[in-house]
Design brief:
Bound molecules: zinc ion
Strand order of the largest sheet: 7-6-5-4-3-2-1-8
Number of helices: 10
Strand content: 15-25%
CATH architecture of one domain: Alpha-Beta Barrel
CATH topology of one domain: TIM Barrel
Number of strands: 8
CATH superfamily of one domain: Metal-dependent hydrolases
Distance between the termini: 42 Å
C-alpha cells in the first residue's frame, strides 16, 4: 500500500460541481493528508480552480487545473477528464457555460417530474451556492434527503437515475468533441473510470481520436481491472492516471480523498504530455 505522502489524486470534486467540500476545504484536507498534488476535476466547470490554487499558495501542494466533461455515444457514457487545462481558455469556457446552462434546464424539468410524483422541491433548495457551478442530480438528491422523501442519497436515483420516472437526459456532446475541447485548451484528455459499462472496448477507437490517458487506478477497480487497463495503456501508448473521484464525506458518497491515487513520480509524464500538446496545434475535431 502506497503512503499518501508520495501520492497524487487526479480526480477530485468540490462545491464547484457536486462535491460537498469547498475548494479551500479540499486543499486543507489534501495538505493534512500529505498529498503532493490534486487535480480539481469538477463536472463541466472550472469555477473552483482559482480558489484552490490560492488556498495552496505557499505550500508544497500542487493544484492541477482540470475538468470532467460528461459525453455520450449511443453505446454509453464517457466521462473525459481534462488535466492541466488552461482554465481561462475561451472555447472551453464557452462550451462549459452552455453545458451548465443546459444542466439548469434539465434540473428544472426533473423538479417538475418529481412534483408530479408527489415530491415537490423549491428551486432555491436545490440551487448550489457557488457561481459558475455545474448543477447535477446529486444537488437534487441532497434536497430530497433534506425533505425526508428518501433515506439515503442512493435512493434518490430510483427516481432520477437513468431508468427512473423523473430522469431527464442531459445535453449530449460526443467524446470526440470533449477530447478536442480539452486538447485545444492545452490539457491532457483522460478517460475516467473506464470500467463503466460498455466503455473499455472503445478505448482503441478513442486513442485513435486523440485520447491520451486512462484512469487505471479508481476505487471500484478490481486487481483484474487494473491489470487489463495497464495492458491497454501499454498497447495504445496511453498515460496511466488514477484518482478517488472524491465528492465529500456524506454516507455512500464513495472513496476518501487520496485513495487510488498514483505515485507522484508519474506526474512529470502527464506534465510533459500537456507541454507537448501546447507546442503543437490541436484544433477542435468535428462532431
Ligand atoms: Zn465521472
Ligand atoms: Zn468524477
Amino acid at each position: 500500500m502506497l503512503s499518501q505522502q508520495n501520492c497524487v489524486d487526479l480526480h477530485v470534486h468540490t462545491t464547484a460541481s457536486d462535491g460537498s467540500l469547498t475548494p479551500t476545504e479540499v486543499v486543507r484536507l489534501a495538505l493534512a493528508q500529505g498529498l503532493r498534488a490534486i487535480a480539481l476535476t469538477d463536472h463541466d466547470s472550472v469555477a473552483g480552480v482559482a480558489e484552490a490554487q490560492a488556498a495552496a499558495r505557499g505550500t508544497d501542494l500542487e493544484v492541477i487545473p482540470g475538468v470532467e466533461i460528461s459525453s455520450d455515444w449511443p453505446v454509453g457514457d464517457f466521462h473525459i477528464l481534462g488535466l492541466y487545462i488552461e482554465p481561462r481558455n475561451g472555447p472551453l469556457g464557452e462550451r462549459l457555460a452552455a453545458m451548465r446552462a443546459a444542466r439548469v434546464g434539465r434540473a428544472r424539468k426533473m423538479l417538475e417530474r418529481l412534483t408530479a410524483l408527489g415530491m415537490p422541491l423549491e428551486w432555491e433548495e436545490v440551487l448550489p451556492s457557488v457561481n459558475g457551478c455545474a448543477i447535477g442530480r446529486l444537488h437534487i438528491a441532497r434536497a430530497m434527503l433534506r425533505r425526508g422523501y428518501i433515506r439515503s442519497l442512493q435512493e434518490a436515483f430510483q427516481y432520477i437515475g437513468r431508468y427512473g420516472p423523473a430522469y431527464v437526459p442531459r445535453l449530449r456532446i460526443t467524446p470526440v468533441e470533449a477530447i478536442g475541447l480539452i486538447r485545444q485548451a492545452g490539457g491532457v484528455a483522460v478517460l475516467a473510470h473506464p470500467t463503466a459499462s460498455g466503455v473499455a472496448e472503445h478505448i482503441p477507437t478513442l486513442a485513435s481520436l486523440g485520447l491520451q490517458g486512462i484512469e487505471v487506478f479508481y476505487p471500484e477497480h478490481s486487481f483484474e481491472n487494473i491489470k487489463a487497463l495497464l495492458r491497454l495503456a501499454r498497447q495504445y501508448r496511453l498515460l496511466v492516471t488514477g484518482g478517488s473521484d472524491f465528492h465529500g464525506f456524506e454516507p455512500g458518497m464513495g472513496a476518501p480523498l487520496g485513495s487510488c491515487g498514483v505515485p507522484a513520480r508519474r506526474l512529470p509524464f502527464l506534465r510533459q504530455a500537456a507541454m507537448a500538446g501546447r507546442s503543437s496545434e490541436w484544433a477542435c475535431l468535428p462532431l
